Amino acid sequence: MSLGTANFGASGNPDHTEAQKVIHKSLDVGVNLIDTNDVYSNGEAEEIVGAALKGRRDDVIVSTKFGSPSGPEVNRAGASRRWIIQAVEASLRRLQTDWIDIYHLHRPAPDCDLEETLEALTDLVKQGKIRYFGSSSTSAPDIVEAQWVSQRRNLGRFASEQICYNLLARGVERAELATCQKYRIGVLVWSPLCGGWLSGAYRVGAEPPRPLRSKIPIFASLYDTAIPENQLKLEAADQLATLAEEAGISLPELALAFALNHPAVSSVILGPDGLAHLESALRGIDVVLADDIMNEIDRIVPAGTTINAVDWGFSPLSLSPKALRRRR
């Protein structure tokens, strides 16, 4: 398992001391990969990670990301050479380090030539500022194209892919996980608890929780139970919670064990906001799911099914109204 930091800072838990305790506890129990992003709490999460790793940096794999808007200016986003070089220097300063182990493109950037992106990232590897680079939330065809461009142009290749995969969002089983496996691309799973839907708090007939993210407009559709797809998620989460109870484990343990069970998955990114949340999540490491439990999971949510497509975190341009209906 890896440690994610999306809940560190102003956008989650603003207590830096608590966040650093979570990082130190994770390292003490054997977690050696910490994942962050230059836009988590406007860079504050990177600063927390940098401060926490003083004296321990050499033994930790640090992953951060670029590409998402870092301000209102049009040029403070994307995958151009200009922004990549500017973004990596800012992340290095916040992380208080000389190098980044894995530098991820947060989302595909169709408005930028892929060769330009790969060339800039390859140059950063040669300069020693990053060790490897990867992608995130990428469709199978785009994963293949990136590998082709790397080979054709003799450039470095995406070595890892961050992907949304959980009991309620299994669509990547159709192609993306198999494609990563074929090209020996490491898979880091994000949202293994489906943004809290697999925490055990979502049960039929109970008042649903109102997580902090549900109040942010961009995430509202993930939690609105008036949406038919979310009603189906609620019913599935309830059945999965019952299955976990019958197996003598918690629903989060079931969910984390499920994600770790897939042969393409290299690591699952935990996203705790405090020590209690971390310790609860770590218990999923030792859970082994028997075949009968996996079969019941497949009955509740069939393989390759994502109940609400919004959970994937990225919608291909090919599914936009303009692309589907040829609207101008």
TrEMBL record:
It holds the Pfam family Aldo_ket_red. Residues 1-300 form the NADP-dependent oxidoreductase domain. Keywords: Oxidoreductase. Coiled coil: none annotated. GO terms for cellular component: cytosol. One of its GO terms (molecular function) is oxidoreductase activity. This is Aldo/keto reductase.
